[in-house]
Amino acid sequence: MARNRLEISKTALSPFSLEELVKKAEELNRENQKTYTTTFPKAPGRLLSHYRFEPRPIRFTCEGEVEGGLSHLLGSLFDFSFTRSIFAPLYSKEGGHCFDPASLFFLELASKVDGYPDYASFCKDLRQEEKGRSYRLLAGIEDSIPGEDDLCHFRYRVGSGPIDSTMDVFVRFLLEFGLIRPELMATDGQLEPSNSRYRGCAHFCSECEGFPLTEAHRKILSDQICSGAKRLQITCPFPEVVEKVRKATEKKGNSVEPKVALLEIEHLAEGTPQTTAAQKLAKLLSLDPDQIPPFKIKWFHIKDGPDGVLVGRCSKVPSDPEARVGYHIDTQDPQKKERVFGYLQQRTTTINVNLGLELPVANSTHPANADEGNELFSHRTKAAVPFVDGQVHCLDSGHDQTDNYLKLAQHGVIPLIDYNRRRENHSPEALLKRGYDQFGTPYAPCGRLCRSNGYDYASESRQYVCGLPCPEDERMSCPHGQKAMGYCRRMSFFEYPRLIGPLQRGTEGWRFFYGIRTASERTNSYDQEVIEKGRKQKLRGLKAFSFSGAIRTLAHLLVRALDFVLNATHTLGRLNPLRI
Same domain, yes or no, for 473 and 560? Predict the structure, then answer.
């Protein structure tokens, strides 16, 4: 596939050629050597691999693709040995041999950059003599070749923190290089399902794994066995959960209490001997086996605890206790919402309008039921992109909270957040009674809608005037008719932060800038369709999803940046088919 020619002037593209990137990468490598000096705790002789950076020639195919893939370009430009210092606090002097974390990190990044759909296919190629030679050479692997277990152990050990630190290094580098511009940003969330089945209870917690059964519970279960019930259950032992469910079901007109199923039995014909398991259960429940009908146990969640106390486990506890239920628009039917049991990946994208380039700069992971609005500022501070005066940050209505407007404005940021109606009455009568319309534009005393007369940055307020659109006879009787602009009203950002700002809601300018938010949606789509090849991840746990989200975002950033540089070099006519 041939490289794309960019519809940008050669003068504007000249600073972003591959030759310029090579020079900047050399500066970054020298700077990292001075900055990251933490000594790795294990002696070099106990490492199964030794990552060493060596500048290598970069060759291209006739189509303009790098021989060896983008991972070869990365490994030839950037010295990743600095990551060894970032990972050092997570290792100790004790223990056996281990792979160099810089080697494993490079392999993790290479597998994503080169588009491997899973680790199995990547590790298979890594062990191939020809296909894996480049990866092994770049990662400093000689005799011992890591497998899926080694990569899995590495991900579990390090988590997402070191990946975020490495991400910051490359974000600052691309800021200095000029591909990232801080003026325009957009944030959006993406729900990812856990490799675990949701079992119907949204209120589960760690205590659901084991709770004591009282004598009252014993009696309830015993009565159910004697009455011929097949599924034995009790009311949820957590009063706060019972109250939440009761209130929620009352709104639907049918108040119910949540039940916890502890075992399921199958009754047998009269005269059939009791099974051993049934006899043990009868003993746990203090029942006489001869006085209950014969049955066999299909499954149960009861065990004998300390001091003779029975312990039950809720059958609705999923195998991933950190995941939660979230909802997004169903791609098959936009009128419906789809339930997702898993995690929320929150990503921020910067938009370079001059180059038409959108690059992700930060990723945060939360349970799927997390409120994106509450997490916005902590997520924004993770990004290495600085706050600058006049920076525009576009967000959807899930972030429409007063605190977000105020916190962003304190750093000179202009928040463009879609308005969340929250069941507000926007009928003409209700808006007139309120005094301003859905965009924050006030009404004059006569009921006509005012218009903006400019935004005052010093006082952070917008002035509205009626402009005297009324007939002359009506103007003569109006108390504001003799004023130059008629009725005036000043509305402050601090009084109405969700409605008032430098960009007036409802105008063409506001809609134009808010349209930039789709960049964050494209980032999420690229992550799903290109980085992950449209496959569902088979992961469980917040730590696993945090690492996955961080490494994919870093790979996404580097792939898009390098692709742009190669396209720019091709447009400039400097991409030699043989060698740079």
Answer: no
Q: Which domain holds residue 176?
A: 10-180+552-571
- 156-193 confidence digits (pLDDT tens): 999 999 999 999 999 999 999 999 999 999 999 999 99
The pTM of this model reads: 0.90
d(CA 380, CA 376): 6
> Rounded distance, CA 415 to CA 216, Å?
56
Instruction: Please tell me the distance from the alpha carbon of residue 501 to that of residue 409, in angstroms, as a whole number.
Output: 9
Tell me how far CA of residue 403 lies from CA of 56, 143, 381, 417, 418, in angstroms. Answer: 50, 55, 15, 12, 15
Q: Is the residue at 405 inside a domain?
A: no
Give the span between the Cα atoms of 237 and 492, in whole angstroms. 51
Does 560 lie in the same domain as 450? no
> Are residue 455 and residue 306 in the same domain, yes or no?
no
159 shares a domain with 41: yes
Residues 16 and 161 in one domain: yes
In contact, 467 and 444? CB cutoff 8 Å: no
158 compared with 267, residue with greater pLDDT: 158
Residues 20 and 130 in one domain: yes
- Of the three residues 254, 283, 312, the one that is the final residue of a domain is 312
Instruction: Give the alpha-carbon dihedral of 454, 458, 459, 462, to 10 degrees.
Output: 10
Task: Please answer whether residues 238 and 206 qualify as being in contact, where contact means their C-beta atoms are separated by less than 8 angstroms.
Answer: no
Residue 34 burial (CB < 10 Å; 0-12/13-18/19+)? exposed
